Amino acid sequence: MSWLHLLHRGLWRRPLRTLLTMVSLSTAFLLMGLLVPILQLFESRGEADGIDRLIVQPRHSITDILPISHTRAISDLLGVTGVSHQSWFGDTFRDEPSSFARWAVPAASFFELHPELHLTTEALNRFANTRTGVLVGQKTAEQFGLKVGDRITLIPDIWLNKEAKVWEFQVMGVFDSNEQSADLTAMYLNYEYFDEYRAWGSGLVSYINVGVGTAQAPFDVAAAIDARFDNSADETTTSSERDFALGFAEQLGDVGFMITLILGAVFFTIALVTANTVAQGMRERLGEFSVLRALGFQLRATQWLMMGEVLLLVALGASSGLLISSLLLEWGRDYFAQLGGIGMNSLTVAAYHSADAVHRPAGCGPTRKATAQTLHRRSTTQVLTLRKL
Amino acid sequence: MDSVLIEVENIAKHYARGAEIVRVLNEVSVSINRADFVAFMRPSGSGKSTLLNLIGGLDRPDRGFVVVGGQNISTFTDRQLTAWRAASVGFVFQSYNLLPALTAEQNVALPLLLTHLSRAEIRSRARIALNIVGLEDRAAHRPTELSGGQEQRVAIARALVSDPQILICDEPTGGLDRSTADKFLSLLRTLNRDLKKTIVMVTHDPKAAEFAGQVHHLDKGQLASAGHVAAAQS
Known about the structure:
The complex is a heterodimer. By secondary structure, chain A is of the alpha+beta class. Chain A has helices at 3-11, 15-43, 69-75, 107-113, 121-129, 138-144, 191-197, 218-228, 241-249, 255-284, 286-295, 299-331, 333-340, 346-359, 365-377, 381-388; strands spanning 53-58, 66-67, 80-88, 92-93, 102-105, 133-137, 151-155, 167-175, 187-190, 204-205, 207-212, 236-240.
């Protein structure tokens, strides 16, 4: 018999009630364990720590496109250590338009700027030297059973091929990465080939990737890039890859505030429910506490017994909730890592597929071809936001 | 050595019931010697339990004082009174008041949590106390798994375990049948005779009072008569 034993026996006096209260607490802490890391992620926006790459995008709409000439202008700026670009390709693969992201990139500069994507030199050379070559991420290769030499056919929905009805590619290699933030579902195709054969939009890119060194503060470089194109026909907004990704999520609204609000409401409710349950339990046991007092337990000792039971209950509920949340976070770490890391992630893909959806009503064939460029230039931010919602 | 252990001097106690003042005890004085077995009798409302609470340090008198072992416990602070109770008094209640979540042994061990004894020693003493009341084989049983008589014996073991000078018993046989009550009262008498425990018992049962060496009658808050059992019965 010990004090801890007495606490434990008191806590489990009514097992079902204790269990249900604990489940409530556990659920609240599970939610907190899942949402707080996301909240912290949003609160970390604007932090310069660990930033070595920036993303330049059109200032007014994610569906606008930048001229490739911007890359040359950016490479001349102080603090820029490398420049590459990527263009959203989209299209439908095996009737699954949103299965993975497809980007047109310049082989050499893009992989030089993304050293976290691992592939053999032979694979990179094959890709660079084969106009119809593509590189696929490990996950996509596994998901679709793709291997080197396989042929892939993509059915265009934005980028029509001016010489064929479909785009045909051949897998030149599979890339992998040790970094959780790397998107191993992506597929990269040669920008040169894409640019030459697309029906419209030649010389345009979706984003410009900028490598930054330690000589200049990343956000100073970002400001310099945006200042360089101020008042031009193609103004830019530059951010870190992490902020870029979070920016998509924040199109829903002030996510941080929403999370805080949800957590506040959940904890307030759970606190009331728990307090009521505990108070009810204590009321039922007033007689028992009176007996303890008669036996010589000091008032403070009985108060600590009551408090101890509550603390034990909260500790058990909180620890189980946080344990489950950490397991869930571990299980879904790829998703969260992408959210906090590389810019080209599932959120971006979702946004682009929404853009595709906006374009689809333009139809197929000549009519679509004629209207596609106009549509693509149109500011569709509002529609995109609604689609994503 | 002074043979008087408990000295109650002119105590008065009243309670407010709405606007009405109920005088429960009025100028009661009584002395109880060491190793006495004293019973207080009379029907409900005569102030027996209040007197017991005052002697046991669960309450304080409005007037007068209670001296136990030379200490005026009426002047103790709540903290002192609680510590005194833990060291000097064992309580046996009518409704047993065992904690349902604990086993018999754990219930008996409760007062020892307030000591600095090791867990092994606490367990050992609890076993001894259960052995004294003949319930060693029921140590692992919960109160719900015991009969009324067994529960009351566990309550006695709990009252004994810290080896107090005084046992306070408030209607201890109230919930027991005659046969079980007699066995329980025999146990009390044995404790009084063999372990020299001073026992103060409140009861409305004349049969129970027969087991006491001395019987006091309370009536309307005052001590009506006192005497040995034979005199009381006559």
